[in-house]
């Protein structure tokens, strides 16, 4: 099967023009098929603040009211996504910006209300990769914003790590998929203050153990859960890394 | 050649949920290949206002500062575009949202500063329809936001009537193109207060004459100039109409 690299970059890279430029310079050098999935970062909260919309987070997840959904649709689907696309085109990379509604790419359902009402947050049901594969085959490079839809006209806000892992899991049926989660650390650290404590490999069993011992920070847990889920679905390699190292293969490899 | 219908809808339709729904109900019934081009309307000005960014218009054209460009990128490329895509998907229409940067679709240059500095406004250089035709062939329905790019990483704000006419002109090389400009009147009116004064046909010669006599309102002039330019490039039919009549062929036909 052909190689497909899926890079997920977080909000901190996207917000900082020089970090974004450096990342895109690396990204365009990746050979073979590739997809970029981006988060939104604090821009959404900043713009929401200026519009008088309060940002509420629970466990690092955004509570998405109707007005906050409009903000993330604007910021993730418009501002961030189109800027990245224009920057990739400037580098000769034929990018296309997509949300989960475009091409009916990612179908989700509104998260059921339990203890917390997350509002318009979507849990992914399925990925429809048919047209996406057509685009890849035409050497088009999809740039995916963390938005999904319910098929009934409702857009939903979905975590970008989840989007990347779900795309990777589905596309593993068609490609040899390499999934890189890029964030602001070199990899998974045993001690968040010490980059020397990075794990080179992490197994699902160790992950369970470290979770029980509470040595893995809560922010890393969804990323790792998504990564292990992708591995189980046949993704060839899942690496937790940063944008400086994404080309070298350094970071924490899930095994 | 196969028939391709390009519908341009203005901001007033896009802003009013019931008008938008009615338009989309009509749009999905159009047989053959189709493209929807949308304006942005006052939402951009409203959001800019809340963000403390002043809206400046000259002859109905928006002066686009860097911060206003961010707003139109958010509103046109994100909010309006993705909502329409999600609504079309709900109607079983496999839509994809595009700006002129996506797929390198519409290349433009920043308008030169003469008497007025329009800021980040783009005059279209060329349309690259290769991947667009590929999508149409897959029965995908493009929804195009009025944004272009300069190929050097800069997004630009471009009038939606111009986008529709430029797409129509280029695609007339490949399809039998029907271009409908939908706005809030039934067609071109000799007396803006009287819908009975609608012209059923308008020739380029008559248009020149009416312009000299100043009986055509200034807002209509760029729409008609774009329409006649598209006709000259081989577009089969150009109709100025409203969304209620777009399926019936009523309105002002350019001849």
Give keywords.
homodimer, 255 residues, alpha/beta, Carbamate kinase, two-stranded antiparallel ribbon, 23% strand, globular
Helix content of chain A: 25-40%
Question: Looking at this structure, what is the CATH superfamily of the domain at 3-50 and 78-100 and 139-146 and 158-254 in chain A?
Answer: Acetylglutamate kinase-like
Shape of chain A: globular
Oligomer kind: homodimer
Report how far apart the termini of chain A are: 21 Å
Structural class, judged by helices and strands of chain A?
alpha/beta
Number of helices of chain A: 8
Radius of gyration of chain A: 17 Å
Q: Tell me, rounded to a whole number, the average pLDDT of chain A.
A: 94
Strand order, largest beta sheet of chain A: 5-8-2-1-11-13-14-12
Largest sheet of chain A: 8 strands, mixed
Most extensive chain-chain interface: A-B, 42 and 42 residues
As a percent range, the share of strand residues of chain A is: 15-25%
- Look up the CATH topology of the domain at 3-50 and 78-100 and 139-146 and 158-254 in chain A: Carbamate kinase
Q: Low-confidence segments of chain A, ≥5 residues, pLDDT <50?
A: none
Count the E strands of chain A: 14
CATH C-level class of the domain at 3-50 and 78-100 and 139-146 and 158-254 in chain A is: Alpha Beta
| CATH architecture descriptor text of the domain at 3-50 and 78-100 and 139-146 and 158-254 in chain A | 3-Layer(aba) Sandwich
SSE sequence of chain A, one letter per element: EHHEHEEHEEEHEEEHEEHHEE
Describe the protein in words:
The structure is a homodimer of 255-residue chains. Chain A has 255 residues and is α/β, with parallel strands linked by helices. Helices cover 36% and strands 23% of the residues of chain A. Chain A has a domain at 3-50 and 78-100 and 139-146 and 158-254: Carbamate kinase (3-Layer(aba) Sandwich). Chain A has helices at residues 11-15, 17-27, 43-50, 66-90, 130-137, 160-171, 204-212, 220-232; strands at residues 3-9, 33-38, 57-58, 61-62, 95-98, 106-110, 122-127, 141-144, 147-149, 155-157, 176-182, 201-202, 237-241, 252-254. The first copy, chain A, has an eight-stranded mixed β-sheet with strand order 5-8-2-1-11-13-14-12, with helices on both faces. In chain A, helix 6 (160-171) packs parallel to helix 8. The radius of gyration of chain A is 17 Å and the shape is globular. The two termini of chain A are 21 Å apart. Chain A binds chain B through residues 47, 50-52, 70, 73-79, 81-83, 85-87, 89-90, 94-99, 101-104, 131, 134-135, 138, 140, 147, 149, 151-155, and chain B through 47, 50-52, 70, 73-79, 81-83, 85-87, 89-90, 94-99, 101-104, 131, 134-135, 138, 140, 147, 149, 151-155.
């Amino acid at each position: 099967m052909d190689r497909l690299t899926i890079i997920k970059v977080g909000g901190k890279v996207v917000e900082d023009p020089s970090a974004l430029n450096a990342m895109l310079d690396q990204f365009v050098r990746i050979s073979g098929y590739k997809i970029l999935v981006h988060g939104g970062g604090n821009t959404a909260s900043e713009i929401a603040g200026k519009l008088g919309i309060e940002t509420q987070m629970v466990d690092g997840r955004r509570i998405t009211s109707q007005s906050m959904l409009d903000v993330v649709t604007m910021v993730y689907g418009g501002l961030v996504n189109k800027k990245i696309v224009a920057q990739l085109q400037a580098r000769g990379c034929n990018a296309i910006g997509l949300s989960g509604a475009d091409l009916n790419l990612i179908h989700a359902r509104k998260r059921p209300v339990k203890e917390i009402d997350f509002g318009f947050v979507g849990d992914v049901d399925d990925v429809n990769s048919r047209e996406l594969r057509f685009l890849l085959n035409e050497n088009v490079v999809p740039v995916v914003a963390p938005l999904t839809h319910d098929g009934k006209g409702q857009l939903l806000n979905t975590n970008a790590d989840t989007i990347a892992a779900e795309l990777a899991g589905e596309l593993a049926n068609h490609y040899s998929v390499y999934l890189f989660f890029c964030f602001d650390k070199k990899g998974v650290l045993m001690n968040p203050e010490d980059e020397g404590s990075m794990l080179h490999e992490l197994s699902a069993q160790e992950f369970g153990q470290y979770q029980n011992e509470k040595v893995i920070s809560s922010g890393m847990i969804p990323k790792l859960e998504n990564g292990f889920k992708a591995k189980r679905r046949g993704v060839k390699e899942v690496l937790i890394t940063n944008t400086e190292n994404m080309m070298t293969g350094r970071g924490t490899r899930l095994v």
